[in-house]
Each structure stands twice: as structure tokens, then as C-alpha cells.
Design goal:
The complex is a heterodimer of chains A (about 400) and B (about 210).
Chain A (H helix, E strand, L loop, with lengths): L17 H20 L3 E2 L5 E3 H7 L9 E3 L5 E4 L4 H9 L9 E10 L11 E10 L4 H17 L5 E7 H12 L2 H12 L3 H10 L4 H9 L4 E2 L2 H7 L5 H19 L6 E4 L12 E7 L7 E5 L3 H4 L6 E7 H8 L8 E6 L4 H13 L3 E6 L6 H5 L4 E5 L7 E2 L1
Parallel strand pairs in A: 1-5, 7-9, 13-14, 13-15
Antiparallel strand pairs in A: 2-4, 3-4, 5-6, 6-12, 7-10, 8-9, 10-11, 11-12, 15-16
Chain B lengths: L4 E6 L2 H12 L15 E4 L4 E6 L4 H6 L5 E5 H7 L4 E5 L5 E7 L11 E4 L2 H10 L5 E4 L6 H4 L5 E6 L3 H5 L3 E9 L1 E5 L1 H6 L1 H20 L1
Parallel strand pairs in B: 1-3, 1-4, 7-8, 7-9
Antiparallel strand pairs in B: 2-3, 4-11, 5-11, 6-9, 6-10
Classes of the chains: A alpha+beta (about 400), B alpha/beta (about 210).
Enzyme class (chain B): transferase
Keywords (chain B): Amino-acid biosynthesis, ATP-binding, Cytoplasm, Glycosyltransferase, Histidine biosynthesis, Nucleotide-binding, Transferase
Family (chain B): Belongs to the ATP phosphoribosyltransferase family. Short subfamily.
């Protein structure tokens, strides 16, 4: 391996330049404000965690973890998601705070890229976790907040798909009779390989009714009517219960005025393996990957010895910024270009402009090599040059 | 309903077969449309836009979402392992992946060498067979490798077996049957659900009716 050139960065690492940074901040502030107004409190956790705790609990594949060794030789990871660190905090530093807890975060997470470029290895997430609440109200709150955040940030054309891991697992187990055979079909669904799923189902020694039930599962995508179609597959007691809960969830979402963009999709599987109940993803026009995703994870907290049901979602800031395109409502940049004899005047002008909220650069003329090039970067320039009084505005 | 779906297509023979399928499924595509040299072809009457790519690249375009749907060989899907939905077997361009070698080959070497255009498929397959092999990636004319001693065996697609035969190679093991598949980007699958479902269903009933013949 040759030494990197000075302009090179590790694969998947990106710089954020002013224009993108500002836009990102603006959108992020809108999102954070909304989450705070729903009573979520922001916390921060360390960038480095132990591989044995957070690394193991996280649903990110081991080969995607950035690992390093501490001075004692223990393996550390750069946090690959925020849900596992928050589960750790809730079970340790916040052990004595009673459930339910409403926490929020805004942090970069790190996932090494296996293949080519085009995807960042470090990206910023803003998200919430509602921990210690197992009811449909919690699910409605998380989904409604996610929908609200997408809307408030300015994305109008979007869809939120809601699936349920438990329902699908239960149905497969019920039809196939055992865990191993169900697991095989689940693997096809996880791999999004419907061709493999279909031909495998057709090979199984099942009644034609059961074969149809399994094939029908792939069509359970669409509006609220999908829940009735799902119940026509004759799920057992637990599955029926799930469908009832999803129906009431939909009603709650209507009350939140957040049902318009919701679709149900029982083929939705998340790559996050800790999800146990509903899972959901948000999609925006023109973006080829989910801009936000979340779900219920009722087992994760017990790994940190403070058992509780929980639900949460995370927003991908990079996709949000991309989805919002180049709508430019950036702050106007002003510059006061002055010479030494009028420094005092320039200072006064800068102070008053800054008090008005302006973004004002003060620049001594003698420190600029190419005045024309420099001036181009500003929307407004005030010249305080020479000994005459008054300013010229360009 | 007004959204135009972008469809990534492999250049060459599969494209022609796929265009024929789409026509039969009721998509009005202009005549002689498949003879164009353009890389992006619009078919506004059909509500489709085609991008023409190298077969190996089709799942890449679909995974990144610059194409909503695509047609890719199962060989490419196995090699690339992209995060896309494989929704329908189009049953066109049938062939299979196989291991081949010289008839008198000595396969008991300490470090057997395998040449292939599909290095992931090859190493995955031999691992599952409990064999440790060294895979050499080639981009074409794979049959050359055992003939001139670059590798002991090859992993490649076989359709008629003629190329193997003419070069004095024999098929040793079959790995998997290959046909072309309709693939879908996960976000598009939900954002443009009704258009994509419609396309998939039209293609499905066409493929099924052909099966019955």
C-alpha cells in the first residue's frame, strides 16, 4: 500500500463544507425543535464503546464495525448506532429514573463500507427512543412524531411503510410447524429474494390452502385494507391480536392527523435484527434508500439488565438534506472592507449589524490580495476606505 | 400515475428478449427501439425510461436508486449481493453456473486455483464444499485459464456447453440454474407501489401463461 496523498481520506469519510453544513444545521434544528416540543430530552454518549457491550448488542454486522484497541488491549468500537448506547445509559447512569423515558439524540454513527463508494461510513442521525412503554399509544407517538418531523423539515412527498416482524414470524411458524422451516423462509424474505421464497414455498409438502397463505404474504402491501387481507390468512390468536393492535394504531394515527402518508407492508424487514414488533421506514421521492427508520425492540434492554419494552426511530440527515434539494434560504453574508484610519467606524458598523442579527465579516483591506475575488463571496459589501466620511455600499 | 419508472436493462441479447416481453405485456414500445445506440431511451407512451448498462452493473443502479427497477441475471445477483428486491423470475436467458476443468485434471493440489468472472460465487461455493481454493478473477474467455495453466478449474455460465467442448473442457459440477430476474429498489417499491405492482403483475401473468404452453 502506498502512502495516501494529502487530499485523501479513509473510505467513506466526508468533509462538510459551509453551504452543506448550514443547510444541514437548519434542517436539524427544525427537527430537534420538534422533538423537544414533544418533550424528548437530548443526551450524548461517547464515540467509543466496548465491543463486548454496545458492539455486541448493536444490530450492525461485525465486519461493518470500526474497531480499535485500548491501552489494556480491550476491543473498542466506534458507535455504529445510537439505540444500543442509549439502552446502556438507561440501564446504568439513568437506572433510577422511572419508566417511561423519552430521550433524543443527534450524533454521527460509524459503519464501515464493504463495497465501493457512494455511501458514507460516517453519517449523522437524529432520533428518539421511547423506553418503558409497550402500548399502541407509544407506537402512535413515535410514528406521528416521525411523520411530523418529515413534514416540518419541508419534505412533502413521502411514504411511511409500517410492517410487523412478529406477525410474519408467527404466521410462518404456525403454517410450517417448526422453527427451522420457518427460519428458512424468513431468510428468503430478509434477503428480499421473492423468487427464491416462491419456489421454495411451492416445493414444500403443504396443502394448497397453506401454500396460498404463504404466497399471499408477499402481497400484503398497501392501505388499511391490507389488515383485512392479513386476517384472511387466518393467523392464530396472537396474530389476530397483532392485527387488532395495528388497526387501533391506524385510528390513533388518524387522530394525530398522521395517517395520510402511512402504508402497511408485511414484507418490510429491517436489517436491524433487534426489532421485535412493528418496524417502519420513511421514503422520499428521488432518494433510493429510507430517509428514516425505526421500530419496536422489546428485548434489547434486557441485554443491559433493565428489561423494558421500547420503540424508537432515527433520521438520516444526509438523505434529508438530499431530499430537500437546493432550496436556498441561506443567511445573507455581509462584509465590511476597511482601511486602518476608519477601523473605529467599521467596528461600530459591524456591531450594529451583528446586533440586528446579520452575519458580518470585518476585513482589513491591506490583508486581501485579490479584492475582486474576495468580494464575490458576499451578498453585501460596505467599503470604509480612505479618509472621507460616509460609506459606500455596493 | 404520471410518474415515469426508470428501468435498468442489460445491453445485448437479454435486452432484446426483455423488450419483447414488455411489448407482449402491453407496453407500447416504438419499433426498432432496441437497435438504438443510446444509453438512455425514453418511452413516454409506456411511462418508462430505460437505461442501458453492462449486465453486471444493473443491480448497482437499482440499489443506489437511480433506477427503480431492472432486469438482471441470477448469476449477477449471486455475485453482487445487492440490497434490492428480486420479485419475479422472467424465465428468459436460461443457462446455469458450473465448475469445469480439463478431463484429466489433477484436483488434489494443496492450493487449487479457480479462474472466474464470478469470484464471490466461486469462493462461496467452494467454501460450502469444504474446499479451500484460490480464486483468480478474469473478465472473459475464462476457458483459456485451465488450457494454459493459469488455473486448474473455472466457474462460469454454461448455456449450450459448446464453448467448453470446443476447448476440450468438461463440466464437473453444476452450481445453480440461472434465469433473468426482475429486481426493484426498496424505496421505489413503496413510493411507486401501484405502478410497480402493475408492471410486476402484467409480467407475471405473461410468464405464467408462457409456462403453461
Amino acid at each position: 500500500m502506498s502512502k495516501p496523498f494529502v487530499f485523501e481520506k479513509p473510505a467513506g469519510m466526508r468533509d462538510t463544507l459551509p453551504a452543506f453544513y448550514q443547510k444541514n444545521e437548519e434542517i436539524k434544528n427544525t427537527i430537534k425543535k420538534e422533538m423537544e416540543s414533544w418533550g424528548y430530552q437530548f443526551i450524548q454518549t461517547p464515540t467509543l464503546e466496548y465491543h463486548d457491550t454496545v458492539g455486541e448488542a448493536s444490530a450492525i454486522l461485525d465486519q461493518q464495525l470500526f474497531k480499535l484497541l485500548d491501552m489494556e488491549g480491550k476491543t473498542l468500537v466506534l458507535r455504529p448506532d445510537m439505540t444500543a448506547p442509549i439502552a446502556r445509559v438507561v440501564s446504568s447512569s439513568m437506572k433510577n429514573v422511572a419508566y417511561p423515558l423519552r430521550l433524543a439524540y443527534n450524533s454521527p454513527v460509524f459503519r464501515a463500507q464493504q463495497r465501493e463508494g457512494g455511501r458514507p461510513a460516517e453519517f449523522e442521525q437524529v432520533g428518539i427512543e421511547l423506553i418503558g412503554e409497550g402500548t399502541a399509544s407509544a407506537e402512535a407517538e413515535a410514528l406521528a412524531l416521525m411523520t411530523e418531523v418529515i413534514k416540518k423539515s419541508g419534505i412533502h412527498s413521502f411514504t411511511v411503510a409500517v410492517g410487523h416482524i412478529g406477525f410474519v414470524q408467527e404466521l410462518l411458524r404456525d403454517i410450517l410447524g417448526n422453527e427451522a422451516r420457518a427460519g428458512e423462509l424468513l431468510r428468503y424474505l430478509n434477503e428480499k429474494n421473492y423468487v427464491g421464497y416462491t419456489s421454495h414455498v411451492k416445493q414444500l409438502p403443504l396443502s394448497s390452502i397453506d401454500t396460498q397463505r404463504l404466497l399471499k404474504l408477499l402481497d400484503l402491501r398497501g392501505g388499511i385494507e391490507v389488515l383485512d387481507e392479513a386476517s384472511s390468512l387466518n393467523p392464530k390468536e396472537k396474530g389476530k391480536q397483532t392485527l387488532k393492535e395495528l388497526k387501533s394504531l391506524y385510528k390513533l394515527l388518524q387522530e394525530y392527523d398522521a395517517a395520510k402518508n402511512i402504508v402497511f407492508d408485511f414484507t418490510l424487514f429491517s436489517h436491524m435484527s433487534y426489532y421485535t414488533g412493528i418496524v417502519f421506514e420513511g421514503y422520499a421521492a428521488g432518494i433510493g434508500a429510507p430517509i428514516a427508520s425505526g421500530g419496536r425492540y422489546d428485548e434489547l434492554l434486557s441485554r443491559f439488565e433493565r428489561k423494558a419494552p421500547a420503540i424508537g426511530f432515527a433520521i438520516r440527515m444526509d438523505y434529508f438534506v438530499e431530499a430537500l434539494g437546493n432550496k436556498n434560504n441561506q443567511m445573507k453574508r455581509q462584509c465590511i472592507l476597511y482601511t486602518g484610519e476608519r477601523r473605529k467606524e467599521a467596528l461600530q458598523l459591524a456591531r450594529s449589524k451583528r446586533e440586528e442579527g446579520g452575519h458580518v465579516v470585518m476585513q482589513d483591506l491591506s490583508g486581501v490580495e485579490n479584492v475582486d475575488e474576495f468580494s464575490k463571496r458576499f451578498d453585501e459589501i460596505h467599503y470604509l476606505i480612505g479618509s472621507q466620511q460616509g460609506e459606500d455600499i455596493l | 400515475m404520471s410518474t415515469v419508472l426508470t428501468m435498468a436493462m442489460p445491453k445485448g441479447r437479454i435486452f432484446e428478449e426483455a423488450v419483447e416481453l414488455l411489448r407482449q405485456a402491453g407496453y407500447p414500445l416504438p419499433p426498432e427501439f432496441e437497435e438504438s445506440r443510446k444509453l438512455i431511451i425514453d418511452a413516454p407512451e409506456a411511462g418508462l425510461r430505460f437505461i442501458l448498462a453492462k449486465p453486471m452493473d444493473v443491480p448497482t443502479y437499482v440499489e443506489h436508486g437511480v433506477a427503480d427497477i431492472g432486469i438482471a441475471g441470477k448469476d449477477v445477483m449471486l455475485e453482487e449481493e445487492r440490497d434490492v428486491y428480486e420479485v419475479l423470475d422472467l424465465k428468459i436467458s436460461e443457462c446455469y453456473l458450473a465448475v469445469a476443468g480439463l478431463p484429466d485434471g489433477n484436483y488434489q493440489k494443496a492450493a487449487p486455483k479457480i479462474a472466474s468472472k464470478y469470484p464471490n460465487v466461486a469462493s462461496h461455493y467452494f467454501r460450502e464444499q469444504g474446499q479451500q481454493v484460490e480464486v483468480i478473477k478474469l473478465n472473459g474467455s475464462i476457458e483459456l485459464a485451465p488450457l494454459i495453466g493459469l488455473a486448474d478449474r473455472i466457474v462460469d455460465i454454461v448455456s449450450t456447453g459448446r464453448t467448453l467442448k470446443e476447448n476440450g473442457l468438461i463440466e464437473l459440477e453444476k452450481i445453480a440454474d440461472i434465469t433473468s430476474r426482475l429486481i426493484v429498489n426498496p424505496a421505489s417499491y413503496r413510493l411507486h407501489a401501484s405502478r410497480i405492482n402493475d408492471l410486476v403483475e402484467r409480467m407475471r401473468s405473461l410468464v405464467e401463461s408462457k409456462e403453461e404452453l
